[in-house]
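Weekly puzzle thread! Below is a chain. First person to post its structure in token form gets bragging rights.
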Amino acid sequence: MTHEHKTAALITAREHLEEVCADLAKCARLAFDTESNGFYAYRERVCLIQISSPDEDFIVDPIAINDVGALGPLFADPKIEKLFHAGEYDVLCLKRDYGFTFSNLYDTMIAARVLGIKELGLAAAIERHFGIVISKKLQRADWGKRPLTHEMIRYAQGDTHYLMRVADEQKKALIERGRLDDAREAFRDLETLEPTIKNFDPEGFWKLIGRQEVEGTAAAALREIWLYREQQAQSRDRAPFRVMPEELMVRIAQALPETREALAAVKGMSPYILERFGSGLLTAVERGRGAAPVVRPPAPDKRRMPDEEWRIFEALRAWRKERAEKDAVEPVVILSTDSLRQVAAFACRHDGNPLAPLSDLKKHRYGEDIRRVVQAARNGAKSA
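Winning reply:
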């Protein structure tokens, strides 16, 4: 990264945050990003919140500050434009951890997608627009660790420092191509996203790699190993995959080792895992041996759409692909797959109006095409 800008101010006290937020509330636009520790911790949390105003950069440390509620009014204020890059994850994390609400968002990745740009990463956008190369070295850093290094602060600052300038370039292009309204509609969808809290599934071991070869007693052992790893991950506050890999768990269950030597011989077993978890794993395998063999539950019934609906959906997908190629954008920019399903459903059920689930913008832009495709799909079915 070039060092033309001063290092961001680090905010570690609630009073400091409140003072800064009072000033930021006067800005017409602000850029935000977050860093979380889901790659490391058992329960992910927001570890940094980066903010850039037109003049300054700030990094808020929510681990040092118990209450970051002063940010809430900024996110909710419809008069302030909030810029993110790939903001879906940030919005979901901020809603999950703090219950914030959002209005007037701008997402530089969504805008890039609407513009038909292939490389959607922020580093690519900064290099494309300004010729500045951003290092990705700290992409997988443990942001929950303290103290933060100067290098970490500089890296995090880069995620918001250039966002306004990227957005300015994008807005010009969106206006030129008549696509600003499409982008704004997609930004509004971001505001309504709701986080889902992930809970541990005791039956989740069926989804593990290589599960096809595990049945009976081995499946019972795998369940016990799965439960043991989860308990260890929780007590150590580590992401479960960082306790032990899934492939190893499956191989242990298949081998059903009775001794430490047999466990050590399992492919992929490391001295570290053997040292820390060897006894627990042998106990888990023993519990599996003593348990009743487990049987895989039946797969959920995934009913396909009714035939006519399916035909219309497939015809719409083919039209969307063609239209996306013509407009030089990804198909999702035209309509999401979920929207196509809704259009097909409304065409066959409800009042028979395929455009009913669409926004005014999408009706205006694609309505005629969609009616034609639906009618053609129906006529094709009749003549078949």
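Puzzle host: Confirmed. Bonus trivia for everyone else. Residues 307-383 form a domain with the DNA polymerase; domain 1 fold (CATH 1.10.150).
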